[in-house]
Amino acid sequence: MSAAAQLINATKKYGSLEALKGISLDIQLGEVVAMLGPNGAGKTTSISLLLGLRKPTSGQALLFGLKPDHLNARSRVGVMLQESGIPTMLKVSELIDLFRSYYPKPMDRDRAIAMAGLEEKSNALVKELSGGQRQRLYFALAVCGDPEVLFLDEPTVGMDVEGRRSFIERIAEFAQMGRTVVLTTHYLEEADQLAKRVVVIDRGLVIADATPQEIKSRVAGKRVRFTAVALTDKDLEGMPITTSTRADHRVQLLTNQPEAVLRELFRRGIEISDLEVSGADLEDAFISLTSHQANG
Length: 296
Hints:
Elements: E1 3-14, E2 17-28, E3 32-36, H1 43-51, E4 58-63, H2 71-74, E5 77-80, H3 92-100, H4 109-115, H5 131-143, E6 149-153, H6 161-175, E7 180-184, H7 188-194, E8 197-202, E9 205-210, H8 212-216, E10 222-227, E11 243-247, E12 250-255, H9 258-267, E13 273-279, H10 282-295
Parallel strand pairs: 3-7, 3-8, 5-6, 6-7
Antiparallel strand pairs: 1-2, 1-4, 8-9, 10-12, 10-13, 11-12
Helix pairs in contact: 3-4, 4-5
């Protein structure tokens, strides 16, 4: 496969802050890649370098082997950023036609509208759209040029659960056309559903780059959740636990030995309720990876 996008030992500094610390990344044509990381990890900066919105302090960013601001590269890329400034007094169909005119071989307008699920809003003014409908419009604008590579930066922020589910199906539909999709998201179930490859960035470094299944296999196999009003850190000492998190009185433990952990909790007289035991997911793996990095 050919490289669609590359970062080659790329660094990015904002004054004394080093947002990226020598990242190298190859994204091949046809791949669906999710870039994950805590806030401020360097995800959006990486996307900005690949799109030519910012220049690396050192190293290189390339699209199709060209500089990202080269017209031959930009004409093959679609972008959906977290914030988009667009004219609100145009109709949806008019705005999509405007964006289609920027590309040499654009997608049919009606097809772009249908891919975004905006058929009923085709003649509506942009200002009349709800927040979720505007997100779908941004997606239509990103795909209307029929791009080979689609960049999506937190595309479902602000959507309700049903809207997110429908939107993920539309992104998957685009990916199934053989196109490259690069996605950043805080909703890790989206990455698990869509991506064949997950890149985890933390503190400006790539700390994991593998399939979702391979990344999940790196953490403890079971997730134990329960409610405990009086649990302390000392109560968990000596147990075979990989990571533990607490929010209010809700406790989550990752472990390869859930039976041994539960036996020890009961032996120590810890009162628990609302017990759940399930397999670890991508979110658990993400928390384990990034908390380990922070502790290191």
